[in-house]
Each structure stands twice: as C-alpha cells, then as structure tokens.
Amino acid sequence: MADLLGSILNSMEKPPTVGDQESRRKAREQAARLKKMEEEEKRKKAEFRKKMEKEVSDFIQDSSQQKRKYNPMGKIERSILHDVAEVAGLTSFSFGEDEESRYVMLFKKEFAPSDEELEAYRKGEEWDPQLAEQRRRLKEQAALEEEESSQTKKSEAPNSNYRDKYSHLIGTSAAKDAAHTLEANRAYGCVPVANKRDTRSIEEAMNEIRAKKRQKREDDTGAHSSSS
Length: 228
Hints:
Elements: H1 2-13, H2 18-61, E1 67-69, H3 75-88, E2 91-95, E3 103-107, H4 115-122, H5 129-156, H6 162-165, H7 171-187, H8 193-196, H9 202-227
Antiparallel strand pairs: 1-3, 2-3
C-alpha cells in the first residue's frame, strides 16, 4: 500500500512531458488570438457607431431631408444604427426579404411614414405620394359606388306589406286594382266571399222574417175563407 502511494506521489511531482508543454502553448496562442479578434471587433463596432452618429446628426440638421435610406448591411450594423436613431429621436425601420438585402431607413418624427408607405417598402416598391393619393381616391370611389348599388338593390326589392304601409299614398292605384279584380270576377262568374255576406242588421232580418210569417198567415186565412 505504501509503495502504491509513493509511486502516485512521485508521478505528480514529475515535470510535464514535451507533449503537455506543446498543448499548453497552443492553448495560450489560441486564447491570445481570440482576445485580439474580440478587441478588433469591439474597435470596429465603436468606429461604425461613431460614423453613424455623425451621419445621423447631419441628417437631423439637414432640413431638406425627411428620410434617409442606407445600403444593405449586416445584422450587427443594423442593430447599432437602430440604437443610434432611437437615441437621436428618429424613427427607423429595416426592410428586405433576405438577410443579404436587409437595409435601414430613417425618418424624422414629423415625417413618420404611413401604413401605406411602409407597405410599399415591404413589397420592395418605391413610394410615390401622388400615385398613392390616386389609388386612395379610386378606392373611395369604388366603395361609394358599391354602397349606392347596394342601396338601389334594397329599394328595388319587393315589400310584401307595402300597400298597408303606404296606403295613404297609393289610394288611387289600390282603387284601380280593386275595380280590375271585380271586373274579372264578373267575367268568370266568380263572386267574392265578401260580396255574398249578408250586410243586414239583426233587427232588419227579424222584421223581414216577421213580415213573411204575417204575410203567410194572411194568405192562409184568405185561402181558408174562400174555401168556406
């Protein structure tokens, strides 16, 4: 047991082999290269940000410019430009379908783009305010014509109770229709049920019945006297 422990201690105290020294050297060199690359990347980002801050400042001071379009750039550069624009109080958007064609546009707050303008940029089209105004007017005119057409169709649709609703306006026409119906009934020997209805009062009907009975009794009495 003592011999085994001694051998382990001896191996730990031995200096590193040539292979171990080479691996450590390569690791140190790689770490140095990575650090240098990080510092270079950091320097480039700082330089790019400084450049964008200068361009954004010039853009703000130029009263003749309402918006500014940049050439396609990488994701990191776009992120830096968006940040610079936000700090400066500008509105910024990225457009382009694929990563290679993505670009940034800056807008001054007082000239923020409309939804129609943004939609044109997303489609890869140039924004033309005059053409957009013509399209808007055409859409409004088409919508107005469609609404008028819909109202016309509704007014032309038949109304089942229009005679009752507008009887005070179409009295003459209704009278003509009634006369025409009556002539048709006469021509074909048809009498409406309403025309068959007895319009006499109950008292008149009873008086007529009594008169008929009285007449019958008189007739019977006269006939009896003649036979005697």
